[in-house]
Amino acid sequence: MIFAVISGFILAALVPLFSSFARNLIPKIYPFLPLGIFIYLGTCFSQVTQNAPMHWSYNWVPSFGVNLDFRLDGLALLFGMLITGIGTLVFFYSSYYLKEDKYLDRFYGYLSMFMAAMLGLVLSDNLISLFVFWELTSISSFFLIGYKNDDPSSRKSALMALGITGFGGLVLLAGLIWIGFVGGSYSIIELVNSSELIKSHEAYPWIIGLLFIGAFTKSAQFPFHFWLPGAMKAPTPVSTYLHSATMVKAGIYLLARFTPVLGGTDSWNWTLILVGGITMLYAAAHSLFRTDLKSILAYSTISALGILVFLLGVGTEDALLAAGIFILTHALYKATLFLITGIIDHETGTREVTSLGGLQKVMKPVALAGYLAALSSAGVPLFLGFISKEIMYESTFHFSNWAIILTASIVLTKVFLFVAGFWVGIKPFTGNLPQEHAKAKMPSPLLWIPPVFLAGLCVLFGVFPGILDAFMQTVFNSMSPEGEVIHLALWHGLNWVLVLSLLTLGLGFALYKFLKPSQSLKGKLAPFDKFAPIELMERIGITFQSFAGSWTGFFQNGYLRNYVISILIFLTVLAGYRLYDGVDIHLDWSQISDITPSEFLVVVLMVTSIFFALITKTRTGVIVALGIIGLANCLFFLYYSAPDLAMTQFSIDTLTVLLFMLVLFQLPKNRSFSTRKLRVRDGALSLMFGVLISILALEVFEAPSYTEVSEYYAENAYLLAKGKNVVNVILVDFRGIDTLVETVVLVIAAMGVFSLLKLNLNPFNKE
Amino acid sequence: MELLLIFIIGLLHAAGIYMLLRRSMFKMIIGLILLGNGVNLLIFLLGRLVKGKPPVIDEASKVFTEIYADPVPQALILTAIVIGFGLQSFAIILIKRVYKVLETDDLDDLNSTDEEI
């Protein structure tokens, strides 16, 4: 199983390797990957449908509880077959659809990566690996949406999709970790047992809140829905695959997967009903204001996702069953509609529904697929859509006191979707063929077979729903482990649900006849644009960007002294607070030595030279003052038992002064640029720092000193290293390598100095 | 004496930072040198002051027989002095070069990577 999951990643990684010599083979070979996995999943079918989920486990990071645990149950199998099944068709379809594209090899790499990530996501039983695959789908979809990377709007859409889903993914990670923390396990199947514990925990509202944000961003629920219409910038096969059948359903999958763990509470149910309800109505109504085929499909997809969230929110057995069937139904008809949209776009060069018509004359099989998909979408009897719609109505119809409102809203949504489906699936094919599209011709079989095949399945399952019984039973049981035995049937008897169904069809047909897609309708929405979430999000983005800009500008302003000042203030405040907060300094006078006159003289000399260095206006003056400071330092070393230091300081000091003198007249003048006010400010700051250092020195001086290291060196200097000057022994023996590195540093500095002195690289002289 | 040294250390640090905050590159180097001196003295002081007892073992004995000055801070400072010299000399030559090429020693003229000719 792990091979099935990671083979996609492997093939994606191999693309750059192959593309140098076998570019043209890639589109011919890669479609067999999803096909192979689909067949493999097919072999697992009989075992899984006998309610015996299969399980594979591979250690990954066991110390963190992160394992590659794969579990194939009904729900995973449903998604797995959709991913690989529709994947196979899309892979074949793209090989013709994007035939002329020069980056086709890259495209297949992204697509394989996406498919593998999606498979991993639905098969993972481990929360953390689930998150990893979740993010991988976001990342690979970023590449796919932005595939036409020379188009700025395409890049923008990809960025927005990544921003929204990536943000949701991070929120989801927090939620998942929290679940694992509360439930004591990262395995979903084990968490089902601690379901009551998690639900009664005080963090439960937070957990489901975080989980919801993750699911809603991925599945384009209101108010995060706006990235999906933008993502339609992707090539049509990508939209088919990612934005109807698989990726956007990942959020639905997540909610369905966690229904047995977290579901069943009022806060779970009503949040989902509310968000799903708003999304399905809002998006369904929106789809009628669009004229671009893909935009219509995008909004109707959002609406369908809303229906799924809504059904999971209703949460009764009927509703969960309806959700399970609707996932399949929607994937089949929506993928078909997307694929035929791609064909229309490919053959006529337009997707404007207003300018399309009569195409059935030139592409009969495509038209057939369109009709069938539209009818399934509308829920006409003998189609799979009819069965899912029946169960949907059944579930809301029996839902406590709110039955009427919920049923009414879902009926209304279905009426809108009826029209949207007809616009895409029927309208372009009926009526008169416009003159400009007369030359449109029948596409290659690679393009028209996939949609016809999918549309055929809509009918097959619709006429003989019984063949889905066993499959849907296991899907249902993954969401509701103790669920009853189900039986799908075409005919549910004469009841209110059937009346509602007919009402939907009647109203939908009436609306289709009455309402024509038009640009003016689209224009009517324009005044509301500024309230749309997408506008809001863009404004937040721009504000954040300018905030980040000014923040960076404030701290990284390019002035060295401002950096020094920030560091100083931070350090002084932090250390100063610590000193203020509970350090009392008391001097132990017995540790303080006396002052001899000669020492005092050196101190006076030093203080005087420091002040002289500060105020003198001549370069020579400063250098002389520095020399005196160095020599005074040298004398301190001499007084207090450090002859080596005194010698070094003396020679170095002399060298520095010499070096200064050497280049003195090529150095800039000792000028003063700043105003008096600035000098006072800097003076105060540096004084503050000086006082702080003094206090710190005093405090450290008071603390007891630890001398084990020194004692070790002192004792072993002669015994181990045969040297009597301990400082020398430390430098050249105990820490010999350090000294070696130090000499290297000096050599590098010397080389730098030499080359700066000698080389003539003055760019101004060359001109 | 320690108190006087602490005062000097504070003074060296304050003077060093003050010079570092100037806009003139020349003063910046002076600040760097002053700061280096201050830090060396600080480390020296923290090794405690011992008079007339350098960490050198007597001719006659193999280990120390009486009190001695702490050798570790001395080794550290020795390294610091030498490395400090490397840094200073490089900095001196660098500003000489910069001054020659750009004909300015105002740091505020240098805070952009773009050559404005």
TrEMBL record, chain A:
GO BP annotations, alphabetical order: monoatomic ion transport
One Gene Ontology cellular component: plasma membrane
What keywords appear on the UniProt entry? Antiport, Cell membrane, Ion transport, Membrane, Transmembrane, Transmembrane helix, Transport
- Molecular function per GO: antiporter activity
Q: InterPro entries, per this entry? A: CPA3_Na-H_Antiporter_A, MrpA_C/MbhD, MrpA_C/MbhE, ND/Mrp_TM, Proton_antipo_N
What subcellular compartments does it reside in? Cell membrane; Membrane
**Highest taxon above the source species:** Bacteria
Q: Where are the transmembrane segments?
A: 75-95, 107-124, 130-147, 159-183, 203-228, 240-256, 268-289, 296-314, 320-344, 365-387, 399-425, 446-468, 488-512, 563-580, 600-615, 622-640, 646-664, 684-701, 743-761
Q: Where is the NADH-Ubiquinone oxidoreductase (complex I) chain 5 N-terminal domain?
A: 62-108
Domain NADH:quinone oxidoreductase/Mrp antiporter transmembrane spans what residues?
124-409
Please list the residue ranges annotated as the MrpA C-terminal/MbhE domain. Answer: 679-758
Membrane topology of this protein: Multi-pass membrane protein
In what residue span(s) does the MrpA C-terminal/MbhD domain sit?
604-669
The name under which this protein is listed is Na(+) H(+) antiporter subunit A
Automatic annotation (TrEMBL), chain B:
| Name of the protein in question | Na(+) H(+) antiporter subunit C
Q: Where are the transmembrane segments?
A: 6-21, 28-46, 75-95
Which UniProt keyword terms apply here?
Cell membrane, Membrane, Transmembrane, Transmembrane helix
Origin species, per record, is Indibacter alkaliphilus (strain CCUG 57479 / KCTC 22604 / LW1)
Which family does the entry's similarity section mention? Belongs to the CPA3 antiporters (TC 2.A.63) subunit C family.
Q: Report membrane topology.
A: Multi-pass membrane protein
Q: Does the keyword Iron apply?
A: no
Q: Name one Pfam family in it.
A: Oxidored_q2
Q: Which GO terms describe its cellular component?
A: plasma membrane
Q: Where in the cell is it found?
A: Cell membrane
Which PANTHER family does this one have?
ANTIPORTER SUBUNIT MNHC2-RELATED
